[in-house]
Design a protein that fits this description.
Blueprint: H1 2-18, E1 26-27, E2 38-41, E3 51-54, E4 59-63, E5 68-76, E6 79-87, H2 94-108, E7 110-116, E8 119-124, E9 129-134
Length: 135
């Protein structure tokens, strides 16, 4: 009886250990891990609907408050490089144009890319973060 209890305890313990989820951020190693999804910015400019998305051709795109933007992106081993970023040129209130410029400038400066708790996290050299949730 004692052996049966010990054996059962070992089985439960081993089974519990195999279901452990990784804690903390997980680096994104390629654009293929995040393609065809659009993410909404949640930590800055709340309620503005700012987004970012990626495709398999290595393009980045999204909405920056007044305009749509697009460009190229390289993702490798948790690093991100955004280049050739451009946008449409719709006019709007000065404060909206300033916010849009700030968002795109931050986006261009991001260096690291990770996924954490279902969110996409981009970080620059100053450790400033853009945090996105899936739409």
């Amino acid at each position: 009886m004692k052996k049966a209890i010990i054996l059962l305890s070992m089985i439960v313990l081993v089974g519990a250990c195999t279901n452990i989820q990784p804690q903390g951020p997980v680096q994104v190693d390629s654009v293929k891990e995040i393609v065809e999804k659009e993410y909404e910015l949640v930590n800055l400019f709340p309620g503005q609907g700012l987004t970012v998305g990626f495709d398999e051709e290595g393009r980045i795109f999204g909405y920056s408050g007044l305009n749509r933007f697009f460009g190229k992106v390289e993702i490798s081993n948790g690093n991100i490089v955004v280049t050739d970023l451009a946008s449409t040129r719709m006019g709007g209130p000065k404060e909206d144009l300033i916010r849009e410029d700030q968002y795109l400038s931050l986006l261009k400066g991001m260096k690291k890319i990770e996924q954490e708790n279902g969110q996409l996290v981009l970080t620059n050299e100053k450790e400033e973060k853009l945090i996105f949730k899936k739409r």
